[in-house]
Specification:
By secondary structure, the protein is an alpha/beta fold. Helix content is 40%, strand content 15%. The chain is built from 10 helices and 10 strands. The protein has an 8-stranded parallel β-sheet. It is globular and about 55 Å long. The N and C termini lie far apart (36 Å). It binds nicotinamide-adenine-dinucleotide (NAD). The site of nicotinamide-adenine-dinucleotide (NAD) has 26 residues, from helix 9.
Length: 272
């Protein structure tokens, strides 16, 4: 498994398994299947309502705790210093873990204007050794700049919507300049039109790989961390089977021309 090194030296797998929209009871078999297929990073969130099911799968898997990188996220209603501490405790308890690998602020919710206080609690949780790395999700450069200016601590990761149809060059550049790893959510464009795009299809045919595998390979080669989601065992397997081929530069560039600049998800400046 390819890995990336975060800004505090913690090592994170470059490909993981996302569980958004997977009900709690279904998260256990899905995460079990992913661990069996070789995934060693799981991305959940308090808002997904499946931290318990995810934690159960990890506990029952027989895989050593230190070999699985677990990410969860603080939900919007829990912003603020004290609320963050409480939300973190609740997430850890549901996951059944003593220490979390990565804690992310799910959305900046700028109208609430308290993500800096939230971040101060994150910094403290990390100092206390309760979480190995701290980061954010859906942060725009202006939000990141504020965090860094007001606390002096840059996030290790910024998890953002990112796929060939929505590439966020500006956010990726800001992340790179500040040593923040870019993690792509909805890396497959939620399995929509992207996977039938003629450019993607042509490259897939040339490699004898699927469209999803080609898109994941594009992410890996441009340095993104990816967390594709599926509950179908054959697709769970397919989405990790991306380390036996390489796209030549011309194909990476061809995929990079597909940007349409339009989001699937909400605009982080507007979501509260
Ligand atoms: P995704 O791009 O991973 O697409 C998943 C969908 O694509 C599946 O439901 C399925 O319909 C299809 N699919 C999966 N594998 C396939 C394959 N091999 N062939 C064909 N179709 C396939 O979308 P996602 O679930 O939105 O994003 C992945 C993860 O990112 C989530 O599970 C979650 O962990 C995270 N996420 C985070 C945020 C955030 O705000 N931080 C938002 C959305 C998602």
């Amino acid at each position: 498994m390819n890995t990336v090194k975060l800004n505090n030296g913690v090592v994170m797998p470059q490909l993981g398994f996302g569980v958004w929209q997977v009900p709690d009871a279904e998260a256990t078999p899905a995460v079990a299947e992913a661990l069996k297929a070789g995934y060693r990073s799981i991305d959940t969130a308090a808002a997904y309502g499946n931290e318990a099911g995810t934690g159960a799968a990890i506990a029952q898997s027989g895989v050593d705790r230190d070999e699985v990188f677990v990410t969860t996220k603080l939900w919007n209603d829990d912003h603020g210093f004290d609320a963050t501490k409480r939300a973190f405790d609740a997430s850890l308890q549901k996951l059944g873990l003593d220490v979390l690998d990565l804690y992310l602020i799910h959305w900046p919710t700028p109208a609430r204007d308290n993500f800096v206080d939230t971040w101060k609690a994150f910094v403290e949780l990390q100092k206390e050794g309760r979480v190995r790395a701290i980061g954010v999700s859906n942060f725009q450069p202006a939000h990141l700049k504020r965090l860094i200016d007001e606390t002096g601590v840059a996030p290790a990761v910024n998890q953002i919507e990112l796929h060939p149809y929505f590439q966020q060059a500006d956010v990726r550049a800001f992340n790179a300049e500040h040593g923040i790893v870019t993690e792509a959510w909805s890396p497959l464009g939620q399995g929509g039109e992207l996977l039938t795009d003629p450019v993607v299809q042509k490259i897939a045919l040339a490699h004898g790989k699927s469209a999803a595998q080609v898109v994941l390979r594009w992410h890996l080669q441009i340095g993104n961390v990816v967390i594709p989601k599926s509950v179908t065992p054959s697709r769970i397997q397919e989405n990790i089977d991306v380390f036996d081929f390489e796209l030549p530069d011309a194909e990476v560039e061809a995929l990079s021309t597909l940007d349409r600049g339009g989001r699937i998800g909400p605009n982080p400046d507007e979501l509260n």
